[in-house]
From TrEMBL, chain A:
This is Xanthine dehydrogenase family protein subunit M. SUPFAM superfamilies: CO dehydrogenase flavoprotein C-terminal domain-like, FAD-binding/transporter-associated domain-like. Keywords: FAD, Flavoprotein. It comes from Microvirga puerhi. It comes from the Bacteria. InterPro entries: CO_DH_flav_C, CO_DH_flav_C_dom_sf, Diverse_Substr_Oxidored, FAD-bd_PCMH, FAD-bd_PCMH-like_sf, FAD-bd_PCMH_sub1, FAD-bd_PCMH_sub2, Mopterin_DH_FAD-bd. Residues 1-222 form the FAD-binding PCMH-type domain.
Automatic annotation (TrEMBL), chain B:
Residues 18-132 form the Aldehyde oxidase/xanthine dehydrogenase a/b hammerhead domain. Pfam families: Ald_Xan_dh_C, MoCoBD_1, MoCoBD_2. SMART domains: Ald_Xan_dh_C (SM01008). This is Xanthine dehydrogenase family protein molybdopterin-binding subunit.
């Protein structure tokens, strides 16, 4: 680990002032990702600004009918919060599909959004990686890429975003509330994470001098028909090869509203409104689900070791939509797939 | 016997779970400084320049040791040969500028605290002259040299066995044939405890070395060789080991670096490797195996060929006998074995849990399953038809072999007779259900060992031996055997081990320590008894005056006639009368070479998997492991051993794989988040059954040892179950879901 300075922010304003003053500073909340990255010398911040004690730990109802989740609410508290369990069970489920209880106890809501890829080459400072060292090249494209992306890749980067929680937040169309030196702004979840393009070193559209205050959920929670299904190389404690969040609103045997997002396949939670539009008005059956999967996976492209993800994603989408339609969501504590 | 054979809890369990058991990197010493290792980023070449100036400028950094400024080390290979070194030129840490593998230690930064050492290590700049490397076994397929088969039994236990009959002709004539290529990737041990050493530099210049190792005397001897030190100048201690699984059989480089720094700086030094650096140590070599089987229509084997290719480093010739296990299990008149070893620019592989059997038997037992399918025979029935009462590699009978009973009890406990033979014919909702089985086999080895016992008049026994307890329960079984042999309560026995100054012991490996040390304790206990009997006979009106030593046992603090319990005197009285308060004796036990029998343990494993038909997700829902391993000393620790082996076998089948990037010649998943082993969710019901297997000829106590046998065959049983569930045969481990969907 490289030496760094440790400071504590006195309030949110101070946190913003501190990060604006030191471009190479990083925030630390739960530390479940940044500390690993620092030990590997992937991240070499000159300063860690501790925000873990700031008063951003509240989950509250907002006038629009949605919920506002403070950026420092631990993943465990969020997953087991009665309002989340009752109204947004897909979010609970996605969180519980990730990491371990110990990590979820530490990890924060904002930190989950900010976690970085698990691409092997990003972690090994000996190998070229455009995300870690812009311009050095992408080792994964010709290297071991079983865990890498099949959608939205660029010649510069084929990394994936590792979060489960974010896949559910994307499906729910959450909003990220941030604050910086020029004030507050709201970022739609779909615009929060970026595709790698030519600047894979930039994961999100959060400005370097901004901080996440809260994540807001809209009123619609799809509590009756949803599922989060995660497929991985062992039955727990592994990142998704492919995961899917599916949420449906059914009306008279037809799909009135649909949301569909994928994890483990792209640099951000992967959604296409066209795929969801194709589901609307349809009878929830395999044919309709397959069509949505085709649209969502259009343009997918595998590399030497991850081509299987395309077919797998197709099956996962169909299965997850089926679980959602039948009202039999995947239960994360039970490893048998429903 | 009071304790032998019972489910005795670990005598060191309390110390371990309460944190008072001290491991190598926790040893308390004063004035300690800390070393952080810098490793090479290239796989082959030379170091042109190491710039340590920035590192040295860091406050609290003491020194940076490299090949350029290190103190003297041995210049001959003999200085680096350890007890279990393979042929070749052993790796010499910081010896010269040559890079032999990626992750090789090239500098040690020593500082007053570990954090400073780590930080300064990040400032060491290295310039290399890189040379082309090869880390991919397939690229060396053609030029890998073949090993010579053994000419006579026992000549080289690692060479392929002698061929039998005419396999080629018999295969051509066989009614049913099967041929398959099976692959096992490089696997790492990943013990929970990181490799670490604490070297205390004593004021008189001697070194007290706390090391994570499976053999303290091996490390002691090795360090004396490397640094040309007199034996009395080095003491190696390893009272507790947090798992090793073979990775600690040979001294690892951190102990050299810690000793090197201690000698150079005349300070006490601790070096602990990072998890990532542990992927620069030895590993289970990857292996490609081609097996061809030919059988008569009734299922009896006519011919077999077993070819293997494994890997080694460019500097040592590591191999184990991969191909001969079939000769121990199945009657087959015609057989040939071939084994080639490909040298690669990687560290030398090393032994890992059931080396060669875990892999060789995996291939064999999958091939047998495939033959059963080709024959239309139940896989268990096929094995019973091919059952061999003789080891065909040596043409000897077994000292004992109760594998039949393993098959019978295992099948019954599992409910094997309810298996429907067709693949994909059993279901549970959306899951396909598969039942598979396999056989396991390992060697029952025993090695010369010395045990010292001090028995006091107040009934306390101290038992000493330089062996290790690598987490298997050696402390506990030693205490059990000593308590029974000396007739004292378990809590009156103190075990001392893991200290190079104690009586001689080889490394703890190969499942040989339990049998060796237990019989060693029995030998020394006999000597104690004899001495006591000599004293007892001199007592007035001694009830034992005319009795032979062999007819006397030590029970409940007494010397007693085995035939007539009424004839007894207390040990305390005997010692008092003899004018002594303790008897201390050391005896070496050697096991006579038995040229008339083969000595092996066996197992039968039955596994159930449930596979999501659409998504290929595999769950191993049930395993029954039935083991024949002679006398079981402790049913509790023995069960734990087998359970651990089964879990590991499940991981071998489904999860474990070292991902090598051949462009960089580096391990890319060098951490236990991405190097997958089973987690709790992957493990369901595991049932361990020990069948009775009396063995009067192998050794006095009838012990065979069971460190390795638990893993052998498990991966095959799981793979065979996956085939039965899905109809898809995956021969490349691990069986990840993409291979099922392909």
């Amino acid at each position: 680990m490289i030496n760094f300075r440790y400071t504590r922010a006195t309030d949110v304003g101070d946190a913003v002032r501190q990060i604006a003053a030191e471009p190479k500073a990083k925030f630390i909340a739960g530390g479940t990702n940044i500390l690993d990255l620092m030990k590997y010398e992937v991240e070499q911040p000159t300063q860690l600004i501790d925000i873990s004690h700031l008063p951003l730990r509240i989950i509250e109802e907002v006038p629009s009918g949605g919920l506002r989740i403070g950026a420092l609410v631990p993943n465990s508290d969020l997953a087991y919060h009665p309002l989340i369990e009752a109204r947004y069970p897909i979010l609970s489920s996605a969180i519980l599909a990730g990491a371990s209880q110990q990590l979820r106890n530490m990890a924060s809501t904002g930190g989950n959004l900010m976690q970085r890829t698990r691409c092997f080459y990003f972690y090994d400072t000996v190998t070229p990686c455009n995300k870690r060292e812009p311009g050095s090249g992408c080792s994964a494209i010709e290297g071991i890429n079983r865990i890498n992306a099949i959608l939205g890749t660029s010649e510069a980067c084929i990394a994936t975003h590792p979060s489960d929680m974010c896949v559910a937040l994307a499906a729910l169309e959450a909003t990220v509330h941030v604050i910086g030196p020029s004030g507050e702004r709201a970022i739609p979840f779909a615009d929060f994470h970026r595709l790698p393009g030519g600047t894979p070193e930039i994961d999100t559209n959060l400005a370097p001098d901004e901080i996440i205050m809260a994540v807001e959920l809209p009123p619609q929670g799809f509590a009756s028909h949803y599922s989060y299904l995660k497929i991985r190389d062992r039955l727990s404690y592994a990142f998704a090869l492919v995961s899917a969040a599916a949420a449906l609103e059914l009306d008279g045997g037809r799909i009135a509203e649909a949301r569909l997002a994928l994890g483990g396949v792209a640099h951000k939670p992967w959604r296409r409104v066209e795929a969801e539009a194709a589901l609307r008005g349809e009878v929830p059956d395999r044919a309709a689900f397959a069509k949505a999967a085709d649209i969502l996976l259009r343009g997918s492209c595998g590399f030497a070791h991850n081509g299987f993800k395309i077919g797998l994603a197709h099956r996962v989408i169909e299965r997850t939509l089926m679980q959602a339609a039948h009202g039999t969501p995947q239960i994360q504590a039970i490893k048998k797939i429903r | 016997m009071t304790y032998i054979g019972t489910a005795t809890s670990r005598v060191d369990g309390h110390a371990k779970v309460t944190g008072t058991a001290t491991y190598a990197a926790e040893a308390k010493t004063t004035g300690l400084v800390h070393g952080s290792v810098v490793t090479s980023s290239i796989a082959k070449g030379r170091i042109v320049r190491i710039d340590v100036s920035d590192a040295l400028r860091v406050d609290r950094v003491i020194d940076v040791l490299t090949h350029a400024n290190r103190p003297p080390m041995a210049d001959a290979d003999s200085g680096y040969k350890d007890e279990v070194a393979p042929d070749g030129s052993p790796f010499r840490p910081l010896y010269d500028d040559r890079i032999l593998f990626s992750g090789q230690p090239i500098a040690l930064v020593v500082a007053e605290d570990p954090e400073t050492a780590q930080f300064a290590a990040s400032l060491v700049r290295v310039e290399y002259a890189e040379e082309p490397h090869v880390t991919e076994m397939y690229r060396r397929w053609d030029d890998a040299p073949a090993l010579k088969a053994v000419a006579k039994p026992g000549e080289n236990p690692f060479s392929p066995p002698k061929p039998r009959g005419n396999a080629k002709a018999a295969l051509a004539a066989a009614a049913v044939r099967h041929q398959g290529d099976y692959y096992v990737p490089v696997e790492y041990h990943n013990p929970m405890e990181l490799y670490g050493s604490t070297v205390t530099y004593e004021s008189d210049g001697t070194l007290t070395v706390f090391d994570k190792t499976q053999g303290v005397q091996n490390v002691q001897c090795y360090l004396c060789g490397v640094f040309a030190l007199a034996p009395e100048r080095v003491q190696v201690l390893s009272p507790f080991t947090g798992g090793a699984f073979g990775s600690g059989l040979r001294p690892q480089y951190q102990v050299v670096l810690a000793a090197l720094a201690a000698l150079a700086l005349k300070r006490s030094v601790r070096v602990v490797l990072t998890r990532q650096q542990m992927y620069g140590l030895g590993y289970r070599p990857a292996m490609i195996q081609r097996i061809e089987l030919g059988a008569k229509g009734d299922g009896t084997l006519e011919a077999m060929t077993h070819d293997a290719i494994t890997m080694t480093s460019q500097y040592e010739h590591f191999y184990r006998q991969e191909t001969g296990w079939s000769g121990l299990l199945y009657q087959c008149p015609n057989a040939t074995y071939a084994h080639r070893v490909a040298p690669l620019d990687l560290p030398t592989p090393c032994d890992m849990r059931a080396p060669s059997a875990a892999t060789g038997v995996y291939a064999l037992e999958c091939a047998m399953d495939e033959l059963a399918v080709a024959l239309g025979l139940d896989p268990l029935e096929l094995r019973q038809r091919c059952y061999s009462d003789r080891d065909q590699n040596t043409n000897r009978p077994y000292s004992s072999k109760n594998l039949h009973e393993c098959y019978r009890q295992g099948a019954e406990a599992f409910g094997w007779e309810k298996r429907s033979p067709e693949p994909r014919s059993m279901r549970d909702g959306s899951e396909l259900v598969g039942w598979g089985m396999a056989t396991g086999v390992w060697e029952a080895l025993q090695v010369p060992i010395a045990v010292r016992i001090a028995l006091t008049a107040n009934g306390h026994a101290e038992v000493s031996c330089a062996t290790s307890d690598i987490g298997t329960g050696t402390y506990t079984i030693m205490a059990q055997v000593a308590a029974d042999m000396l007739g004292v309560p378990l809590d009156q026995v103190t075990i001392r081990l893991g200290d190079s100054t104690l009586p001689q012991s080889p490394v703890e490996g190969g499942s040989w320590i339990a049998a060796s040390v237990a019989n060693g304790i029995a030998t020394t206990s006999d000597a104690i008894r004899d001495e006591l009997l000599g004293l007892a006979k001199q007592m007035p009106n001694s009830p034992l005056s005319d009795i032979a030593p062999g007819e006397v046992v030590l029970v409940d603090g007494k010397l007693m006639s085995a035939r007539d319990p009424a004839r007894a005197v207390s040990i305390a009285d005997t010692m008092r009368h003899g004018g002594i308060d303790r008897i201390e004796l050391e005896k070496t036990t050697r096991f006579p070479k038995d040229e008339t029998h083969s000595h092996n343990t066996h197992s039968a494993i039955f596994a159930e998997v449930k596979v999501d038909e659409e998504l290929g997700v595999i769950r191993v829902t049930r395993v029954v492991s039935t083991v024949a391993a002679g006398r079981i000393l402790n049913t509790k620790t023995a069960s734990s051993q087998i359970l651990g082996g089964v879990v590991w076998g499940i991981g071998m089948a489904l999860h474990e794989e070292t991902l090598l990037d051949h462009t960089f010649g580096r391990v890319m998943n060098a951490n236990i988040a991405e190097y997958h082993v089973p987690v709790n969710a992957d493990i369901h019901d595991i049932d361990v059954i020990f069948v009775d297997e009396p063995d009067d000829s192998i050794n006095r106590l009838g012990i065979k040892g069971l460190g390795e046998i638990g893993i052998v065959g498990v991966a095959a049983a799981v793979a065979n179950a996956v085939y039965h569930a899905t109809g898809k045969r995956v021969r490349d481990l691990p069986i990840t879901l993409d291979k099922l969907l392909a």
